[in-house]
Amino acid sequence: MTDSSPDRKRAFVPYSRPCLDADDLRAVADVLTSTTISQGEQLKAFEDAFAKHAGAAFATAFSSGTAAVHAMCHAAGLGPGDEVILPALTFAGTANAVRYVGATPVFADIDPSTNCISPDMIEPLVTDATRAVLSVDFAGQPANYDRLRNIAAQRGLLLLADAAHAAGARWRDRTVGSLADMTAFSFNPVKNITAAEGGMVTTNDPTFASHLRLFGSHGMTRDPKLLESSPPAGWYYEQQFLGYNYKLSELHAALGLSQLRKLDAYNEHRARLARYYTEELSDLPLILPRPDADSLHSWHLYVIRLTGTDVSRRDELFEHLRSEGFGVQLHYIPVPMHPDYRRMGYTTASLPETVEYFESAISLPLNPSIDEDTCAAVAASVRSFLGIEPRNGNPSTDAK
Ligand SMILES: Cc1ncc(COP(=O)(O)O)c(C=O)c1O
After folding, report:
1. pTM for the full model?
2. Is residue 186 within 6 Å of ligand 1 at its C-beta?
3. Would the CB of 93 count as within 6 Å of ligand 1?
4. 263-398 is classed in which CATH architecture?
């Protein structure tokens, strides 16, 4: 194996990182010098702008993406005895949120062409106890919403979406956030836009929207239209069900709103880098992402997969790229493989595509703070590891 990057001083390139500029700093500083640091106009403005961008009637902010998925499951009325079908290939937080409400996650295999839940694998898992499908727009590729919506309609299920990777993505002519009964987003530091931490649920259903709003605020309301008793005076509020304190502060909301203005530009930058990676790596024995031609991918992740006997060298390639300063990652350990889930009796026996993906995948650095030169250096490092000649006869070490 040759070392494709003699420049050992190059700064570590994380797979993702927050991109914060002077506008973001000003937005947060303005809140700090105001009198309202929670539950104010920034929150309302962020929710309204996010709903508009997603093409949804309502958006409700939460303190994290996991809280958003939890809220969505609660608003859906899921509880003990209910089953929810979701892909095994996701961050464990997706499935954990199903468990928070006492419902049972049922894991479906992925479609290897999208790495999203396979619609064909859903039908055999539906039982009398199934209440919802919870899809994940993996890496920023929207799941096949047409088929998922059909299955949900035919089987009388709710369609919930975890779009933590897919802010700004589109399925056919509709923006992610307007296609499922409810859709959750995350704004943690590595997501396409960040609020430092935060989440959002979009919906077109006013009943869900009303429940979501109360859920993140202890199940409490002072809205006169919702009160069960007539208010004796202005101090009155009611707890109408057991909720949580999942509120997003004004500081986080101001940052999220400022970032939202740049979401489309960030996603275009990500798409440009993804095209570049694909060009640079297309002659290698790898499985590269194959974005659906009719949808708009948000390129949260660019995942390469090793093939053939190279699969057994995945961890070696991972360490090689890390040692050269490239912050590659593995998204994700399939949820049923975590010890906590294994102890509950979950296995991956019926999830061959998920397991094949897991054993062969590596996420390359992809974020708006890097450019084509960095991608060229990453690609050169992959080439040299695989022992394949540099492209165009240029030594791979030139590609920096
Ligand atoms: C698919 C998916 N769902 C949910 C979450 C949870 O989001 P958060 O970290 O904001 O709680 C993440 C975060 O990594 C995620 O990738």
Report:
1. 0.95
2. yes
3. yes
4. Alpha-Beta Complex (3.90)
